[in-house]
Amino acid sequence: VAKNILSGCGVSISNLNSSECIPHFGGNQGPAYPFFVASIFYFFGENLNFVRYAQLLIFSISLIYFFRTIEKFNIENNKFKLLVIFLSLSPITFPWSRFIGADTLSLSFLLVYFSFFINSLYKNKIDIIPLSILLGAGSYFRLDFIFLSLTLLVFFYLYPSKKKFFTDGIKMFAICLLIWTPWTIRNLLKEVA
């Protein structure tokens, strides 16, 4: 798909050697990962190792950001810190960067999302713009990323005003819709929706 993007065909699963260019909606992921790979190919040549290095770099930065977020709260519980380190460096997460797939970048978005989520919990108020952008952009990598929005239901109990909770929810929904509008319009125009 990345090579089709570079050849001017766009998001398509057509064979590179064929003359046809059949648009594709992206499968279980949005268009972000193929565009990510295509951009690495464009700047560094068609070398999958550069894709792996970029994934590892992005994951490492998000991991550091997550650790810095937790560190701000001066959590004294060493078991919690050990659990965070274990989960972050475990075979469940870290080795994904050696594979060519959207999972590493999804995990990176997940770490950054939970960093902002923890900050929101600390403030007892949803950080609307960053969390909305992360939900929308993260779902461009994997559609199931949008299910993270269910974590925001905890604020239903934290907000003193339920009306404010629903207002913030509508704002977040509008931002996510705005993020997905260009891709949805493209799919409708190409009749692949």
Number of helices: 8
Tell me, briefly, the overall form: flat
Tell me, rounded to a whole number, the average pLDDT: 80
* Rg calc: 19 Å
How many DSSP E strands? 0
Explained architecture:
With 193 residues, this protein is an all-alpha fold. It has eight helices and no strands.
Offer a concise description of the structure.
This protein is 64% helix and 0% strand. The chain is mainly α and 193 residues long. The mean pLDDT is 80.
Layout of strands and helices, then pairs:
Elements: H1 2-6, H2 32-44, H3 48-72, H4 78-89, H5 103-123, H6 128-141, H7 154-158, H8 162-189
Helix pairs in contact: 2-3, 3-5, 5-6, 6-8
Which terms would index this structure?
0% strand; mainly alpha; 193 residues
